UniProtKB/TrEMBL annotation, chain A:
The chain crosses the membrane at residues 28-51, 173-192, 228-250, 270-292. Keywords: Cell cycle, Cell division, Membrane, Transmembrane, Transmembrane helix. InterPro entries: FtsX. GO terms for biological process: cell division. One of its GO terms (cellular component) is membrane. This is Cell division transport system permease protein.
From TrEMBL, chain B:
Keywords: ATP-binding, Cell cycle, Cell division, Nucleotide-binding. Residues 2-223 form the ABC transporter domain. It comes from Gemmobacter megaterium. SUPFAM superfamilies: P-loop containing nucleoside triphosphate hydrolases. GO terms for cellular component: plasma membrane. Pfam families: ABC_tran (PF00005). SMART domains: AAA. The keyword Hydrolase does not apply. PROSITE patterns: ABC_TRANSPORTER_1 (PS00211), ABC_TRANSPORTER_2 (PS50893). This is Cell division transport system ATP-binding protein. The keyword Nucleotide-binding applies. InterPro entries: AAA+_ATPase, ABC_transporter-like_ATP-bd, ABC_transporter-like_CS, ABC_transpr_LolD-like, P-loop_NTPase. One of its GO terms (biological process) is cell division.
């Protein structure tokens, strides 16, 4: 660890090694530009990952404690079956509370699909009973059997069937976000390795002179490592700034309430992208050091 | 210090040097002569581990040349100042920075006054800020000499150091080598310049080594 810190310290302190390598125009700005572009993409991948994580948590939380019983019965039996279901739920272990949804609530549920003018009263709609689970949960199979016996028109929908795929989908989306970040880091490392190799090859004469006067590989590699690390850090900082600006300019989540509009950062989440330039610098430091030392071994 | 024991060196096909056995002891002064292509430069390159022997045993400061790591080679080169025939520099750095390069790579700062004295001595003070590509052949050679001695190395190897210099500068250079030798440094100068050897004759107990037929021979008596 101490050695690592000393080596990282060289990036900031050893300007002497920086001077011995001539400045390279195209490699310099291309490295910075690529680091910036990668960081820009990483900000969106990070936003996607955090947003899908929030979504997964919200869905899981919202759906995990509630279940619904749907009663489809002839109109003259509806009230009796509803009462029977509520009584049954009242005596079911693991059920905290239950209530029948009012016609207004049922209309509100259907409104997104059929519009506000739906004549709910004239339709033969099933009655919905919502109940809340206690912490220990309830025996779904036992409840189904009791419903079958006491309210034949009642069907238990414990939300598990559609809750699970949604939660899984959100989790996968979060995973894809993290995977994208890893791939972006890998692509940055690959690009910097190529650039460092090109730079080392172009400076073979410089390396020959440095070796002639007694420079060790660590000194020579340090010149390239410092240069590429700083370029990556500066490029990534610019990329992150642009990415954050882009995220900030997205429509507010509150305005439309959809998933895409909720793609931004929330609270401390705005600070997370600030880690990206540091990560880019670390990636560049590692990639350049490995490439430089390998190339120097090759140039023996 | 530098010891050859039946050392040979072969390029892909042929053998260039063979059965060389000699020791460059501390404080010794050697001239190395021989026809062009005889292997003078190769001999010098063996001395600073730019090339490794293909036969025999070469010892550099108590370390067997073929067993040295790259870091070891770097440490050896800090004790050897080399003046190349084709003086190589970092073209983007000014002359002063190039001369101070051996100090830079070891993490030492050059004393400005010392550096200026050295540049004055080799007649390059007015060109301290010039870039190497703008220097003439002689100026490059003088800069290479200054770079080779700035670390006060134990051994100085010079490959045709006076090839591009006028007589006066050649004499100044020789005086520097003699002075360094009096300070205990080992000097090896590969040269065709017999006048240089004759001039040195009266001032130092130099030995003349001649490379002929792939072997290094003592050229007659000590000068």
């Amino acid at each position: 660890m101490k050695e690592l810190l000393q080596r990282l310290g060289l990036i900031w302190s050893d300007r002497a090694s920086d001077r011995v390598v001539p400045p390279t125009g195209h490699t310099a700005w291309l490295t910075g530009f690529t680091a910036g572009a990668m960081a820009f993409l990483a900000v969106f991948a990070l936003a996607l990952s955090l947003a899908s994580g929030r979504l997964a948590d919200r869905w899981a939380e919202a759906l995990s404690n509630t279940a619904t019983i749907r009663i489809s019965a002839p109109p003259d039996q509806m009230t009796a079956q509803t009462r029977a279901v509520l009584n049954l739920l009242g005596t079911t272990p693991g059920v905290q509370g239950a209530r029948a949804l009012s016609p207004e609530e049922q209309r509100a549920l259907l409104e997104p699909w059929f519009g506000p003018d739906l004549p709910v009263d004239s339709l033969s709609l099933p009655q919905l009973v919502e109940f809340t689970e206690a912490d220990g949960g309830y025996d779904a199979q036992g409840l189904r059997l009791r419903l079958q016996a006491e309210a034949p028109g009642a069907v238990l929908d414990d939300h598990t069937r559609w809750r699970r795929p949604l939660t899984v989908a959100a989790e996968r989306l979060r995973l894809l976000g993290w995977l994208s970040l890893v791939l972006i880091g890998g692509a940055l490392a690959a690009m910097i390795t190529l650039a460092a190799n090109a730079s080392l090859a172009a400076n073979a004469q410089v390396i020959r002179v440095l070796r002639l006067v007694g420079a060790q590989d660590r000194f020579i590699a340090g010149a390239f490592v410092r240069r590429f690390t700083l370029r990556a850090a500066i490029g990534a900082s610019a990329g992150v700034a642009m990415g954050l600006l882009g995220i900030a300019l997205l429509p507010s989540a509150d305005a439309a309430g959809g998933f895409l509009t909720g793609l931004g950062f929330q609270g401390w989440g705005w600070l997370v992208p600030l880690v990206l330039p540091v990560m880019a610098a670390l990636v560049a430091w590692t990639a350049t050091r490995i490439a430089a030392l390998a190339k120097l071994r090759e140039l023996k | 210090m530098i010891s050859f024991d039946k050392v040979g060196y072969s390029y892909g096909g042929g053998e260039l040097l063979s059965e060389i056995s000699l020791t460059l002891s501390p404080g010794s002064f050697h001239f190395l002569t021989g026809p062009s292509g005889a292997g003078k430069t190769t001999f010098l390159k063996l001395c600073y581990a730019e090339l490794l022997p293909t036969a025999g045993r070469l010892t550099l400061f108590d370390g067997e040349a073929r067993g040295l790591s790259r870091d070891d080679v770097a440490m050896v080169r800090r004790r050897i100042g080399v003046v190349h025939q084709d003086c190589q520099f970092l073209d983007h750095l000014p002359v002063a920075a190039n001369v101070a390069l051996p100090l830079t790579v070891t993490g030492k700062d050059a004393e400005v006054a010392d550096l200026q004295d050295l540049l004055t001595w080799v007649g390059l003070r007015p060109l301290a800020d010039a870039l190497p590509p703008s220097l003439s052949g002689g100026e490059r050679q003088r800069a290479a000499v200054a770079r080779a001695v700035i670390m006060s190395p134990d051994v100085i190897l010079a490959d045709e150091p006076t090839g591009n210099l006028d007589w006066e500068m050649s004499q100044r250079l020789l005086r520097l080598f003699l002075e360094l030798n009096r300070m205990g440094k080992t000097i090896v100068i590969a040269t065709h310049d017999m006048n240089l050897i004759r001039t040195a004759k009266g001032q130092v107990a130099a030995r003349v080594l001649r490379i002929q037929n792939r072997r290094v021979q003592l050229a007659g008596a000590d000068l």
